[in-house]
């Protein structure tokens, strides 16, 4: 176990390949602070790969061309990498 108040700092230094948070909001605070544009969610324990963006739906800017695409692209790329590893 690693202290929750320093685990993300240590992860940013490269000491870990991944950090598993037991609570959704606990992990999101750190991830969004470190890299809001690229942070994604991966759900484990399902019979299929599920990844999603970490931001909200942004209905207020839908159709305006203002929404960023980085998080969606990152989520798609991570899902593709997992699929490829599983099917090699």
TrEMBL record:
The keyword Zinc-finger does not apply. InterPro entries: PdxA_fam. The keyword Repeat does not apply. Its EC number is 1.1.1.262. It comes from Klebsiella variicola. The lineage of its organism: Bacteria, Pseudomonadati, Pseudomonadota, Gammaproteobacteria, Enterobacterales. It is an enzyme of class 1 (oxidoreductase). PANTHER family: 4-HYDROXYTHREONINE-4-PHOSPHATE DEHYDROGENASE, D-THREONATE 4-PHOSPHATE DEHYDROGENASE. Keywords: Metal-binding, NAD, Oxidoreductase. GO terms for molecular function: 4-hydroxythreonine-4-phosphate dehydrogenase activity; metal ion binding; NAD binding. Pfam families: PdxA. Gene3D superfamilies: Isopropylmalate Dehydrogenase. This is 4-hydroxythreonine-4-phosphate dehydrogenase.
């Amino acid at each position: 176990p690693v202290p929750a108040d320093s685990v993300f700092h240590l992860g940013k230094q490269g000491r870990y390949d991944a950090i598993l948070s037991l609570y959704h909001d606990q992990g999101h605070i750190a991830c969004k602070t470190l890299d809001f544009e690229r942070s994604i969610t991966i759900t484990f324990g399902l019979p299929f790969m599920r990844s999603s963006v970490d931001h909200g739906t942004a209905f207020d800017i839908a159709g305006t061309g203002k929404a960023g695409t980085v998080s969606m692209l990152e989520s798609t790329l991570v899902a593709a990498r997992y699929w490829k590893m599983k099917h090699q």
